[in-house]
Amino acid sequence: MVSKYSGIESYYEQVGKRVAETGVRVTVYCPSYFTPAMDNYEGMRLVCLPTVRSKHLETLVHTLLSTIHVMFTNCEIVHFHALGPALFSFLPRLVGKKTVVTVQGLDWQRKKWGTLASLTLKLGEVASAMLPNLTMVVSKQLQSYYRTRYGIKTTYVPNGAMLRERSSPSKILEWGLEPDDYILFLGRFSPEKNLHLLIEAYEMLNLKLKLVVAGGSSHTDAYETQLRKHGNDKIIFLNWVSGEQLTELLTNATLFVLPSDLEGLSLALLDAMGAGVCVLASDIPENREVVGDAGFTFRAGDVQDLARMLALLESDPEVRAAAGRAGRKIVEERYLWSRIADEIGHCYEQLSGRKAITIHSSASAEPKKIERIL
Length: 374
Hints:
By secondary structure, the chain is α/β, with parallel strands linked by helices. The protein folds into two domains: 7-160 and 336-373, Glycogen Phosphorylase B (Rossmann fold), CATH 3.40.50; 171-334, Glycogen Phosphorylase B (Rossmann fold), CATH 3.40.50. 41% of the residues lie in helices and 18% in strands. The chain has helices spanning 7-20, 58-71, 83-86, 115-130, 140-150, 171-174, 195-204, 221-228, 243-251, 267-274, 285-291, 303-314, 317-335, 337-352, and strands at residues 25-31, 40-41, 44-49, 77-81, 98-103, 134-137, 155-156, 182-189, 210-217, 235-238, 255-258, 279-282, 296-298, 369-373. The strands form two sheets. An eight-stranded mixed sheet has the order 2-3-1-14-4-5-6-7, with helices on both faces. Helix 1 (7-20) packs across helix 14 (337-352). Mean pLDDT is 89; it is low at 1-6 and 356-367.
């Protein structure tokens, strides 16, 4: 169950194992096709259930089966993630359990979804506001949105990251890369990430730096196929990376770019900042919230402005270095996984009516059972 690069799987892994360290019994529901055969991982119990391998039904079917299963367990709190699964967040409450929904973004806005799927996700948004005992949001922008649209008070708990030290080059050499020799994008090859915009801007310039794109399709195979046609000796496509290879790829990059027009609170952006890499992101509110004065933005969707900023940042290593240090400090002060897990643990304690604990406390706490629905 080691997660792919970033994404929600990384969130489950980083938060779940830290909450489990406090004595909380954490169960994670996983699709059986996705997860290696194991009962436990990093202190978390795994329950693998089947689903339908379908773009539109996979998550809903798996969440429904997981919800039915968890209703017949003796857990206290069921934590759902994202808008689709939020549709089922009322069911465990029928048998006396408390439910939490974390909203990672307004998924119905993603370009990959058709009319029916978008409508379903919009219903999921309403459900996330009305059905659980507690609604968490990962950005202040989302918190404002829910307050304005639904008149509810949500709990702000952002996504997190870790601090990474620079790795000696090894794997990147096999990929034809050198330290400080490339611009990096990490994440899903999905239209709202605007990777095509980054490639277009890069091809407009004659940069010395290479462009490295690491990730994969998210039910967007046709889009990925079009992107990969641009691959050459300067535009290099990699598959998903994780673990030590991810740290090596991140910490040796010259610049990280996130050109998306839709985010909740980007884990990829936080990871780059935690690695001390200068970041350039589209100026959507969710990105500005993270970057602040520690990085750079360009006008969302504006290929000319993106190209201008790429050329500017390639030419000024001192500015990049200062931005990298500032970004790392922001992560250290606000977004470390230990802090995020601590905040979530406190929310669980409040829901269960027990005294709040601290993630790194050495004192034992009465175990409680948390089920996470993936």
